Amino acid sequence: MSGVRVLVGTRKGAFVLTADGKRDRWTVDGPHFPGWEIYHVKGSPAEPQRIYASQTSGWFGQVVQRSDDGGKTWNPVGNEFAYEGAPGTHQWYDGTPHPWEFARVWHLEPSRTDADTVYAGVEDAALFKSTDGGRTWSELSGLRGHGTGSSWQPGAGGMCLHTIVLDPSDERRMFVAISAAGAFRTDDGGTTWKAINQGLRSAHLPDGDAEVGHCVHRLAMHPARPQTLFMQKHWDVMRSDDAGESWREISGNLPTDFGFPIDVHAHDPETLYVVPITSDSHHFPPDGKLRVYRSRSGGNEWEPLTNGLPQEHCYVNVLRDAMAVDSLDSCGVYFGTTGGSVYASPDAGDHWHEIVRDLPGVLSVEVQTLA
Amino acid sequence: MIRVVLPAHLRALARIEGELSVAVTGAVTQDAVLSAIESLYPMLKGTIRDRTTRKRRPFIRFFACERDLSHDAPDALLPDAVASGAEPFLIVGAIAGG
Known about the structure:
The structure holds 2 protein chains of 2 kinds.
Chain A: E1 3-10, E2 13-20, E3 27-32, E4 37-43, E5 51-57, E6 61-67, E7 75-76, E8 89-91, E9 97-99, E10 104-110, E11 118-123, E12 126-130, E13 138-139, E14 160-166, E15 174-179, E16 182-186, E17 194-195, E18 216-220, E19 229-233, E20 237-240, E21 248-249, E22 262-264, E23 272-274, E24 292-295, E25 303-305, E26 323-325, E27 333-336, E28 342-345, E29 353-356, E30 362-370
Antiparallel strand pairs in A: 1-2, 1-30, 2-3, 4-5, 5-6, 6-7, 8-9, 10-11, 11-12, 12-13, 14-15, 15-16, 16-17, 18-19, 19-20, 20-21, 22-23, 23-24, 24-25, 26-27, 27-28, 28-29
Chain B: E1 2-5, H1 8-14, E2 20-22, H2 30-40, E3 60-64, E4 67-68, H3 80-83, E5 89-93
Parallel strand pairs in B: 1-5
Antiparallel strand pairs in B: 1-2, 3-4, 3-5
């Protein structure tokens, strides 16, 4: 029977939530790695029993864990993330040059076709690749060296490479996003990169349409339409239909276009989900109401989804990696909050229920659809 | 044998219960003890000291014989009582928070 496995990274461990295809009764397993920050947990599309987890700590640094049995048991793999060559500098908060220093892995993106190949987006912003199941990592240094790297400057959350989107139609093409540098694309497997921020407007930049410096929060793509990208920026929800060459705003009637996650319905490339957040200084939903907004028209026209979500006194946030969709016939949508709740909708957002509450603050949510 | 006590999170990571013992040939220094630990438990590489610079991570402390050895040179000799196994070498996660 089909089912789903929801992989949840939190500030104090990882949790694995499982249900059958109805998605109404859940088993909660965890915490794995209790006490550690688990920035991201993601399974391999090529081998669903293979799961990678980024385990990190201010005391003990970075560990990467791997499971080969669907999250029941784990083993640490490689944690050496050495920048290629002389790391050089980027800009610090005060505008002075600052050496590139590895802090943590924000995002792990397994290959769609090879379970041993996985990409890691790290802070300070760089992209690493492993082709041996996470044992060893090599930097794809063309990204940092693409020309603007020395001018990148961290946002408040650190200078992190937090989004990696692989093009299912072309293994050489991938997209990444960096706070607060912007979005970048490679068409040659990571050797060379191009900033793809044309059309973004950012009020925090003196040159509002600068090539880099935009605080991109998240990118999303529907696998059937890899030319189309959606972006939740610091402010603004954006869309590109030419693989990032140009962007246009699709915030439309959203109550606020600040937010972190964005995702696409598994079966409809024009159905999108965002979670509007009041502002960059008020990281909680407007009016204390937790509302997912859905567009069925590829943006601009949005409807609030509230059934089963708290509609008063709710002041949580939903972080950039904390939303996911499954690919069952009735698309399931999932998200986790900084208040430790994980919500599921088995009917594309019409109805929601709380799978689990009072976990540590949720950093990431991914879902695997199991045959 | 050198006796070593790890913080709880690193014991869990290395699947160690209680103290561990490592053999050090030659001078018994911080560097030699840490290298022996990392050789036995490769998953601990990078968690106590930086893999590249080999500097102690900022929130890690080294204690032994009721002394804080954190700021001693990595190649300084550890106390005789540690070298003889009479006293453990303590690797401690620093207090942080309020």
